[in-house]
């Protein structure tokens, strides 16, 4: 019932009606002249210019009234679409009169667009494509053809890109509010609309009074600009600004960016029934509880309390109930206890980096105003109690409550989904208490006493007969065990079968213990046990009364002697440099290494000198707080520091914090410390953006089927980086599914499709199996998502993954969450430089017989020195590269065991060694002499000669008669160790090539490296790879001023490839070396694109996977392979069409592989020509913008571009991913919203709360 309905107000002539029309009734402005839509007339690729066939610049000149365009013509010299200037127009008008027409502005373009017949244009372009040969032109035509086809397919007409009317959005969406001062605050859109209306009205008037053309044109241009500003302000020309010089927010800006409609209101909404407050620790809580302040609970549960009050007849109606609650009446407190029973709340701590940042808890009412949090869930939330705040959310529907109870309660989140390791691990005080109680002490009170049972021992302990740490004997289960009272008490907590009376418990042991308990007993029991461990730890760390004083930092006696010895070594190195034995770079590196080793020695001396019960030592050793590195800085020496460029400073900091630093030392160290803080701030933003991109590319990956039936898989072995195994085979295959029967020496250990569990892992390790073929998301044959078998185990509960699990988002979170822990650069430890001791030897990783390949040696002082450039030592089937100047430690034909040292070498440089006696002669070699004042030394460096083009610097060794005995190629950047004309002996060093130092310019590490890999960028300083197997030939041929390296196939095919190596790039290969496809020719980083082209799809996928793992493992972060595999799978989803066959695809078009495969299937059935394609890599940003769903793409980046493209193509969004569904407000198709669970309902029994059973409808 509406009062005054249908009346018309006499003041403003508006009808009285419902307020809702202010949100739904649109108006429009009828334009006096057509204008172009800026989304289509500007931007790349420019849709309007493409379809007409003009250049974007020409189009702009016509639209904004700078040039004419011919629209009608009977004259041959003036074809339609020709652009002419004002002068030319006047001239042609005189010449041809009315035989042609030319216009300016959007009307002219409108006329041209209306002329276009899309079908004819398509046929014309397709014919043109057949004839054209040059790639440049083909690309152009293909671009145009794609747009024409899109228009045809969607049924859009090109002339619709020109606006004749501008719609006006409803009033409530561009509100005007009166401020208290009588002024108005208005939405920017009103200003923009006002400008359009003013100009439009002025234009109408001018047209009516037949104003001069020049005035009308100007007004039309202004109208065009006003409409442009309304749609997308600032896209062209200067943006329109308000009085205070602030850019006005146009319609496009309302959608774009973090504050736009998509990200601000559709993907992240504010919700009611939420609260936030500071958190404090609640050590007495159970694992599934949290403390909620009474006041907060009262407000949060308000409607529930009101309902209950009415139900209990404590209030007569809802209104009185509301009053009671608001006055916090005494009656309310009785009710509230019952209301919160069985109604958990969600706690969330921002930043929400992974799914463990939101967990459910049963509320417990407490006094005060702070939320209490269980100490063990802190690590999952990454929370501490220095003022962190958390948000509380209340679930409303019974379904939501049930879901939270079954899936989100804290005891269900003991294990991190990223790695399958426990995350609810006791820390700090709790670890301290457990460690203190389980440590043993020699010679403590009561040592050696024997007890007949545990009770007796504990009685003795309580009566202070024996000390906590005293070693005593006690009978347990009929056996005598040597243990301590503390250990016995600790073990009382554990189940009988899991007790161990020997081990001292630190953080690592606790983690392993929890993982083991979880494996054996499941969630509920483990949560209980963890809680008991917590109580034990807190109780006894309090009783232990551990404190730290400055006296506890004991500076080792030996420090003085170690420092003196180091100083002496450095003096010797300087002397070597002065006498010309080594070069400056070597001197620098050796000096650094001396100090690095000295620092380690001091640290060792310090640790050895400490008492086992020294509080600082106990903290560091147990893992409760701090580490050896920090202790070293406190009581050892601070060691090497880095300067502003990241180079390590030669003079280390010899003092520690207890002694205090000198002014100079303090100054040196302040750079590193400050950089650490700056890096952290930058890293957080970078890492968050990485997570966002990862989620956007992978959110649509859901477990969609039981088994896709593929026979493919990937073969995995140990992951090796820099000669170290960084991820063992066992870690990589745990919880994965076998792709084929596992056969060892003819015996079938397990059949295909078996999940690899603990028993099988043990067997694989015992049998020494090195490679296993497993199913992987990379090879999953499903069109969408992955299947259970290819994914394997759900790491968060160590069971088989369930259908409908959103594994894509979990993968993105697992990779993004540790992002903040990755370094920004290769180099970082709170400013303390850790120059890892250089690698000086190669050890064999397997046993077997030794053979050599391409190795030439010299015998010097009884040692075999390798003189060939790139030989290999082969042990059974493993190859190890050996550089020149190395010393061989094994003989050919030896049979060795695993771990034998094969060769040793100088870590800093590769020497070029003379293999003959004779006289040195330089050829085409330009040395650059440099003088080092500090040491009074000359050095000669080989540089590129400026004047001559082709040079090949080399050294000849001549005999007395001047006959050539040997030639040595010298790369640029090598240091000459002999003068021209000098006499050398066999085994002398002619030149030294510096090895590029670890942590030098070529190696991007940390977060930037992960981004580089996921974005599929070509790395800086990339290496050249061989494309075929074969033998290398290097002669002194030149092409274009570059050296030619040829690889010839070993068979008779005569296949060969030439590679042009720029002078100054360092070759890794040598003449006559055998190489395999994909081996490096020059030094540098490998590009994933090269791997894809040479070794194919699987190799490229594995390459990215392993490279990403290297970065994470280097930082000590465990992320399971399968998460990275899911992201990589998404990067390789698309293919590039090489030959479109009989299909409608275009050349060079990038299409989803599944679509091409479907099309090919149809073509094959009809017997037509198939589509040829090649795989491509798409970086995550590109893949996310080009995803199938336009809603998801628009909410990611480049919103306007995505939406304008979707409009032209008439795209349909099938709502397959998660984001699209969140945006339009549907249940996401994962978890309980998964299609297979559609017909599962829940019984709700009002009286007994919620029944936790699913019923088939």
TrEMBL record:
CDD domains xref list: RNAP_beta'_C, RNAP_beta'_N
Keywords: Coiled coil, DNA-directed RNA polymerase, Metal-binding, Nucleotidyltransferase, Transcription, Transferase
EC number(s) on file: 2.7.7.6
Classification via Gene3D superfamilies: 1.10.132.30, 1.10.150.390, 1.10.1790.20, 1.10.40.90, 2.40.40.20, 2.40.50.100, RNA polymerase II, clamp domain (4.10.860.120), RNA polymerase Rpb1, domain 3 (1.10.274.100)
Enzyme category, top tier: transferase
Coiled-coil region list: 111-145
Entry keyword annotation includes Zinc-finger: no
GO CC term, one of those recorded: DNA-directed RNA polymerase complex
SUPFAM superfamilies noted in UniProt: beta and beta-prime subunits of DNA dependent RNA-polymerase (SSF64484)
RNA polymerase N-terminal domain boundaries: 159-438
Catalysed conversion reaction: RNA(n) + a ribonucleoside 5'-triphosphate = RNA(n+1) + diphosphate
Classification via InterPro entries: DNA-dir_RpoC_beta_prime, DNA-dir_RpoC_beta_prime_bact, RNA_pol_asu, RNA_pol_N, RNA_pol_Rpb1_1, RNA_pol_Rpb1_3, RNA_pol_Rpb1_3_sf, RNA_pol_Rpb1_4
Pfam family, one: RNA_pol_Rpb1_3
Metal-binding as UniProt keyword: yes
GO biological-process terms attached to the record: DNA-templated transcription
One GO MF term: DNA binding
Family from the record: Belongs to the RNA polymerase beta' chain family.
Chain's role: DNA-dependent RNA polymerase catalyzes the transcription of DNA into RNA using the four ribonucleoside triphosphates as substrates.
Protein name in UniProt: DNA-directed RNA polymerase subunit
